[in-house]
Amino acid sequence: MSNLEIITDGLRFPEGPVAMPDGSVALVEIAAQRITRVAADGSKSLIADVPGGPNGLAVGPDGVFYICNNGGFTFTDAGGFLRPTGQAADYETGRIETFDPKTGRLKRLYDRAGDHRLRGPNDLMFDQAEGFWFSDLGKSRPRDRDHGGLYWAAADGSRIVEAAHPVPGGGNGVGISPDGKVVYLAETETGRLWAWDITGSGSLSKRPWPSPHGGRLVCQLPGYRRLDSLAIAASGNIVIATLMEGEITTVSPEGQIVDIVKMPDIMPTNICFGGPDMRTAWITLSTTGRLARMRWREPGLRLPFE
To answer: What pLDDT score does 80 carry?
Structure first.
C-alpha cells in the first residue's frame, strides 16, 4: 500500500469505477444516486442523476454508460463510516439502465428476466458479442432476503437470460476471462469465487448438484471476508475487492491466492485498471467516501468499448 494515493474524498459510497481515456474516472455514488466524474486532479463533476441505487457501471457501444441499478439501499452513517443496511423504503425494483452522455437520456433497458423481476443488479462486464454478463446481489430485509443470480443481456435491450440462479449469498463482482471462455462471479456473504464455462450468449456449462447453481468453486477466502466487485488481470488472474478485512485479493484461475494488498478502509468495494500500460489501479474506498490510485503489480485486462 506504500504507493497508494488518495485522489478525492467526500463521495457518498462510491462504486463502479471506469477509467476514461482522458485520465479521469467515472463512478457511481450509490447513496447520492448519481454518476460522477473524478478528474485526474481530484475535482468532481456530475455526469448524471440516477434515482434508486446506481451500483455497477461500464462503458458500452457508442460511449453509452450501462448501469446496474440495485433499486436503492438504506444507509447508516456512524462514526464517519457510511454503509448500506437494507432495502430502501421507496424500492420498486432492480434494473439495468443506460445513460447516453450525448443526449442526456436515462433509459430503463431491463427490469425483469421472464416472469421474474431483477432484485438488485450489482456489477457487469461486456463480452465480445455486444452483450454483457451481470450479477444480481438480491435484496435484504430485516427478516428475509431475495436470492441473487448471474445474468446475460444483449446491449440493445432485445434479450435477457437468467443464466445461474440462485446465488444464495448474493452475486456481486463479475468478470470474463481474457479468452472469453469463462465467467467468474463473487458471492458476497460466503466469500466464495465461482466460475462457469461459457458455451454461448447467456449459455453456460453447468455442474450437477450439490453445486447450488451449476458453478464450480474456484476459491473460498478464509476468515470473515465478504466479496465485492472484481476485475480481471491481463494474465487471467481475478482481482477481488475484499470486505471486512479491507483488502484487494488476487486469485489465480486455479484458485490460489497469489497476492493480498491491504487497504485503508474496511470496505474497498471496487477496482478497475487504466493508463497506457493498464497498470494504474483505481480503487473505491466506500465507507470513507474516497477514490484511491496506485501502481499495480500486473496489467489489467483492457475491456471492450473502453
So the answer is: 86
Which three three-digit cell numbers place residue 32?
Answer: 447520492
Q: Where are the domains of the chain?
A: 5-295
**pTM (2 d.p.):** 0.97
Three-state SS across 111-178?
Answer: CEECCEECCCEEEEEECCCCEEEEEECCEECCCCEECEEEEEEECCCCCEEEEEEEECCCEEEEEECC
Residues comprising the chain, all counted:
306
Report the alpha-carbon distance of residue 24 to residue 14 in Å, rounded: 15
Burial of 86 per CB tally in 10 Å (0-12, 13-18, 19+): middle
How many Cα atoms occupy the beta-carbon half-sphere of 166 within 13 Å?
Answer: 12
- What is the spatial distance between Cα 59 and Cα 172, in angstroms, rounded to a whole number? 18
Write the class of the CATH domain 5-295: mainly beta
Q: Yes or no: say if 126 and 171 are a contact pair by the CB < 8 Å rule.
A: no
Which residues, in sequence order, are CB contacts of 110 under 8 Å at separation 6+? Answer: 95, 96, 118, 153, 157, 160
Q: Which residues of the chain have pLDDT under 70?
A: 1-2
Q: Is the peptide bond before 268 cis (omega within 30 degrees of 0)?
A: no
Task: For residues 69 and 240, give the distance between their C-alpha atoms in angstroms, rounded to a whole number.
Answer: 21
What residues form DSSP beta bridges with 226?
A: 243
* Burial label, 271 (beta-carbon count in 10 A; 0-12, 13-18, 19+): buried
pLDDT of 2 reads: 66
